[in-house]
């Protein structure tokens, strides 16, 4: 009898277009051999062209979803995405604190969509900072790393290195600063943990099909972490898989804006 797949939980918002948020997380978990569970924090009115509205799930109900789920289901790894408001951030932080160290946690600090829509209230940023010591790794893009460190987004590797160190100093044991918005023939992300830094580079795929890229990478790391020897190996493999998903995105023909990546490019 083969071993059961790991159970991954995503705590995030919904994307009706299916390219980001909960939908992207569950697709990624399935594509990479993890059983997906989900707790919703927000509903969005969203397409590939942007977000027109956000309806936040009451924080008490987010808490109820979490507690009901884990009373029954043994979760092996957690991914946290869009949390929308400070009270929701605080509710999820309290959930993590009560289970300190029980399961690995990936935090994708979703603040601004690729299309430029604000997805996190201003008052929630400070609450996110209090969450950092309770997660295993945080995966900000350049804009999010700037918000977390109260500085301008990095424009080069040196700036990414400085901000990764600042985020670690805030309590996050591992940081992946994503450099996808920098120019160049490669996409270089900066990994920093207690053993030092690694620059993780992959080829840049020339495509407009990038909707949900950040959600997908963090959920890929989440799905692979229980299946790999260490975090860095899971992250490298997640990046390689995402490159394939980006390359195959044009096959989907979804939406009139930046389309989604192809989560099932290795399956279909």
UniProtKB/TrEMBL annotation:
Reaction(s) the record says it catalyses: 4-amino-5-hydroxymethyl-2-methylpyrimidine + ATP = 4-amino-2-methyl-5-(phosphooxymethyl)pyrimidine + ADP + H(+); 4-amino-2-methyl-5-(phosphooxymethyl)pyrimidine + ATP = 4-amino-2-methyl-5-(diphosphooxymethyl)pyrimidine + ADP
Keywords of this entry: ATP-binding, Kinase, Nucleotide-binding, Thiamine biosynthesis, Transferase
Keyword match Ligase: no
Domain Pyridoxamine kinase/Phosphomethylpyrimidine kinase: 15-262
InterPro entries assigned: HMP/HMP-P_kinase_dom, PM/HMP-P_kinase-1, Ribokinase-like
One biological process term in Gene Ontology: thiamine biosynthetic process
SUPFAM superfamilies tied to this protein: Ribokinase-like (SSF53613)
Pfam families: Phos_pyr_kin
Pathway participation: Cofactor biosynthesis; thiamine diphosphate biosynthesis; 4-amino-2-methyl-5-diphosphomethylpyrimidine from 5-amino-1-(5-phospho-D-ribosyl)imidazole: step 3/3
Molecular function GO labels: ATP binding; hydroxymethylpyrimidine kinase activity; phosphomethylpyrimidine kinase activity
GO CC terms in record: cytosol
The keyword ATP-binding belongs to this UniProt entry's keyword annotation: yes
NCBIfam families: HMP-P_kinase
Physiological role: Catalyzes the phosphorylation of hydroxymethylpyrimidine phosphate (HMP-P) to HMP-PP, and of HMP to HMP-P.
PANTHER family linked: HYDROXYMETHYLPYRIMIDINE_PHOSPHOMETHYLPYRIMIDINE KINASE THI20-RELATED, PHOSPHOMETHYLPYRIMIDINE KINASE
Protein name, UniProt field: Hydroxymethylpyrimidine/phosphomethylpyrimidine kinase
Organism: Bogoriella caseilytica
The organism's taxonomic lineage, starting at the top: Bacteria, Bacillati, Actinomycetota, Actinomycetes, Micrococcales
């Amino acid at each position: 009898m083969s071993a059961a797949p790991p159970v991954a939980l995503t705590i995030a918002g919904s994307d009706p277009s299916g390219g980001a948020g909960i939908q992207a997380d569950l697709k990624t978990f399935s594509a990479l051999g993890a059983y997906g569970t989900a707790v919703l924090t927000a509903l969005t009115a969203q397409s590939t062209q942007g977000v027109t509205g956000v309806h936040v799930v009451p924080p008490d109900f987010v808490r109820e979803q979490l507690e009901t789920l884990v009373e029954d289901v043994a979760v092996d790894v957690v991914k946290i995405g869009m949390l929308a408001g400070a009270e929701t951030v605080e509710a999820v932080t309290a959930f993590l604190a009560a289970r300190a160290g029980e399961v690995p946690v990936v935090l994708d600090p979703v603040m601004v969509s690729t299309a430029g829509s604000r997805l996190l209230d201003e008052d929630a940023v400070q609450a996110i900072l209090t969450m950092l010591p309770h997660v295993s790794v945080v995966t900000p893009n350049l804009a999010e790393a700037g918000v977390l460190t109260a500085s301008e987004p990095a424009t080069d590797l040196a700036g990414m290195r400085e901000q990764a160190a600042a985020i670690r100093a805030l309590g996050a044991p591992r940081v992946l600063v994503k450099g996808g918005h920098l120019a160049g023939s490669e996409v270089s992300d900066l990994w920093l943990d207690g053993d030092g830094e690694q620059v993780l580079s992959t080829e840049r795929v020339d495509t407009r099909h990038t909707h949900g890229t950040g959600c997908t990478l963090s959920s890929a790391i989440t799905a692979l972490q229980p299946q790999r020897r260490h975090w860095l190996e899971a992250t490298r493999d997640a990046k390689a898989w995402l490159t394939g998903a980006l390359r195959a995105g044009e096959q989907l023909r979804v939406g009139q804006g930046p389309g989604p990546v192809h989560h099932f490019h290795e399956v279909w």
